[in-house]
User: Fold ABC transmembrane type-1 domain-containing protein from Rhizopus delemar.
Amino acid sequence: MLSQGSGSVTEQDLANIRQALGLNRPFHEQYLSYMQGLLHGDFGRSFMGGTAVAKLIGDALPATLMLAFTSLIFSILISLPLGIQAAIKRGKTTDQAIRILSLVGLSFPNFWLALMLVLLLSITFPLLPPSGWSAPAISAWCARPCWKRCRPNTSWWRAARA
Assistant:
């Protein structure tokens, strides 16, 4: 492949790339070859690193599944009691408040709401790391604020000794 910012590219370089990627074949042949690869579990290779796309998906799958199931559990734990409460108090102020809050929550775009939650939970109240996923790193990051709060303030001790 070409390195980024390498300057000029010759026609021979482009022909070699087209040959390597199979872009010199007709579109329907490329498509059929791609679909045949999909049926055999070959998703192709990444343009950026040249690694297999199936490996990249496999590497990201545990974090994706953990995020999906965690969000599903949180949504069930929040929505079920609120739905039951709204059904019990049908037509009353509690029902209207729950209905308004759910409509307001659904009205916000998901990406904006997620960004605001990251801002709230990692910047304003440093409870979670702002990005990344690694179980040991997350637990170490969460333990750090507790360590800072629980340790004795050694600067006063040093100032008193001086």
